[in-house]
Amino acid sequence: MTEIARAPQTPPPAQVGPAAVGTDAGTAMLDMGLALVADEMQQVEARLAEALQSQIGPIPQVGEHLLGAGGKRLRPLLAVLA
Q1: How many Å is the Cα radius of gyration of the chain?
Q2: Are the C-beta atoms of residues 49 and 56 closer than 8 Å to each other?
Q3: Would you say residue 70 has pLDDT above 80?
């Protein structure tokens, strides 16, 4: 009989490489990547803070809350990395 060729098995995600999700090595690699664009992201932070300045009472308070929560950074990060 003819033998059927089998596709190679894919290892579980934890064994794929050093940047596997949930590993210390993956976190370290992410930190290194973010360090490469730290100056640009500081400029993004300054621009976001500047954009939320307003004489209208609650706008600076809401903006401070949003910036403190860590949101509004993924798109700028992707743009800087591109």
Answers
A1: 22
A2: no
A3: no
Q: What angle do CA 31, 75, 55 make, to 5 degrees?
A: 110
Decide if 51 contacts 44 (C-beta within 8 A): no
Count of other CB atoms within 10 angstroms of residue 66: 13
CB 53 within 8 A of CB 35: no
Instruction: Determine the Cα–Cα distance for residues 4 and 49; give it in Å rounded to an integer.
Output: 62
If you search the block for the tokens 């609650």, which residue do you land on?
Answer: 58
Contact status, residue 4 vs residue 33, Cβ threshold 8 Å: no
Given a cut of 90, whether residue 39 has pLDDT beyond it is yes
Q: Is the pTM of this model over 0.70?
A: no
Q: Is the dihedral of CA 17, 19, 23, 25 positive or negative?
A: positive
- Amino acid sitting at position 43: Q
Q: What does the block give as tokens for 68?
A: 């403190």
